[in-house]
Automatic annotation (TrEMBL):
<keyword id="KW-0805">Transcription regulation</keyword>
<protein>
    <submittedName>
        <fullName>Transcriptional regulator, TetR family</fullName>
    </submittedName>
</protein>
<keyword id="KW-0804">Transcription</keyword>
<dbReference type="Pfam" id="PF00440">
    <property type="entry name" value="TetR_N"/>
</dbReference>
<dbReference type="InterPro" id="IPR009057">
    <property type="entry name" value="Homeodomain-like_sf"/>
</dbReference>
<feature type="domain" description="HTH tetR-type">
    <location>
        <begin position="1"/>
        <end position="55"/>
    </location>
</feature>
<feature type="DNA-binding region" description="H-T-H motif">
    <location>
        <begin position="18"/>
        <end position="37"/>
    </location>
</feature>
<dbReference type="InterPro" id="IPR036271">
    <property type="entry name" value="Tet_transcr_reg_TetR-rel_C_sf"/>
</dbReference>
<dbReference type="GO" id="GO:0000976">
    <property type="term" value="F:transcription cis-regulatory region binding"/>
</dbReference>
<dbReference type="GO" id="GO:0003700">
    <property type="term" value="F:DNA-binding transcription factor activity"/>
</dbReference>
<dbReference type="InterPro" id="IPR001647">
    <property type="entry name" value="HTH_TetR"/>
</dbReference>
<dbReference type="InterPro" id="IPR054129">
    <property type="entry name" value="DesT_TetR_C"/>
</dbReference>
<keyword id="KW-0238">DNA-binding</keyword>
<dbReference type="Pfam" id="PF21943">
    <property type="entry name" value="TetR_C_46"/>
</dbReference>
<dbReference type="InterPro" id="IPR050109">
    <property type="entry name" value="HTH-type_TetR-like_transc_reg"/>
</dbReference>
Length: 194
């Protein structure tokens, strides 16, 4: 049922999707959909939770804490873009459909906050391994920037079935790590003095 719902919601959006179409795609009766998953809003939230859990499990499973920082980030990005490539409909529901619709935008914000927390933790771990500490605010800002850039690139990937998720992860890694490596070594850019 959730697979059918994700597919329909990704194509039509929350408001245009019908429970009849979801039931038909799932091969069950409409009353069964309501009996198992409740209202259309509850069904959409169930889809969001499942897709978020799938994505977070893929990332967490790939980025083992005992790896060097670059390998953790690489594996996390590869798992993230691999998820998007394998679950394009799920990504569309998470990123496109939930983003502008209340009360679902709150679900998306919670997902993003979890991703930011994971990325900030990875950065903090890498910095501590280099003998450096950075203010929590700085870690959070960099994590938000990396998550936002990755989300935008994932949205690009979702629209291009021919695009390779691993190559996309490599592109993001080059953008992220080349900058992160400089930060890890204490190099920062400063605006010119007037």
């Amino acid at each position: 049922m959730l697979d059918a719902a994700v597919k329909v919601f990704s194509r039509r959006g929350f408001h245009a999707a019908s429970m009849d179409e979801i039931a038909d795609d799932a091969g069950i009766s409409k009353p069964m959909v309501y009996a198992y998953l409740g209202t259309k809003e509850e069904l959409f939230v169930a889809c969001l939770h499942r897709e978020t859990a799938r994505m977070m499990e893929a990332i967490a499973g790939a980025a083992a804490p005992d790896l060097p920082a670059d390998q953790r980030l690489w594996r996390g990005l590869r798992a993230f873009f691999g998820f998007v490539g394998a679950h394009r409909d799920g990504w569309a529901v998470l990123y496109r459909q939930a983003r502008g619709s209340q009360p679902f935008a709150g679900e998306l914000a919670a997902m993003r906050a979890r991703l930011v927390e994971v990325v900030a933790g990875m950065l903090d771990h890498a910095l501590r391994a280099e003998g450096r500490e950075v203010a929590e605010t700085e870690l959070e800002v960099v994590a938000y920037a990396l998550v936002g850039a990755s989300e935008s690139l994932a949205d690009w990937l979702a629209d291009r079935p021919e695009a390779d998720p691993e190559k996309t992860a490599t592109r993001m890694m080059n953008v992220a790590w080349l900058g992160a490596a400089q930060l890890l070594h204490g190099t920062t850019w400063r605006p010119p003095t007037p």
